[in-house]
Amino acid sequence: MPKITFIAHDGSSREIDVAVGLTVMEGAVKNMIPGIDADCGGACACSTCHVYVDPAWAAKVGKPADVEEDMLDFAFEVKENSRLSCQIKVTDDLDGLVLRTPEKQF
Fold first, then answer.
1. What is the rounded CA–CA span in Å between residue 52 and residue 95?
2. pLDDT means per 10 residues in the chain (106 residues)?
3. Full-model pTM
4. How far apart are CA 4 and CA 70, in angstroms?
5. Domains and CATH numbers, the chain
């Protein structure tokens, strides 16, 4: 099972195992990761699962689709490496993925 590390705004971190085929958001919710609210349940209809992808992982995670980019307009402090975790499918290639959570979610 791929391991994903979440680093909170305050610098604390937590590594979780997420099954292949789930989204990063689903893994975060199942493991009660602080800062991942997931209000819409993964429908890409809010921005409350916003994360920052570590630059070393940007190519493997890929760029957001148009609908995700539209939703990111509603996120707090969007950056070049912003993604919605509900739109990142976990694969074996993402073992070791590092994500940061923003100070708050809208």
1. 16
2. 97 98 98 95 95 98 96 95 98 98 90
3. 0.95
4. 25
5. 3-100 (3.10.20.30)
C-beta atoms surrounding 53 within 10 Å: 23
Tokens of 84: 């919605």
Any idea what the Cα angle at residue 60 is, between residues 48 and 27, rounded to 5°?
40
Lookup: tokens for 23: 């989204």
Q: Which two tokens stand for residue 5?
A: 């590390």
What lies within 8 Å, CB to CB, of 1 at 6+ separation is 17, 18, 19, 20
Render the burial of 2-34: b for 16+ CB within 10 Å, e for the rest: bebebbeeeeeeeebebeeebbbbbbbbeeebe
Instruction: Give first-to-last CA distance, the chain, whole Å.
Output: 30
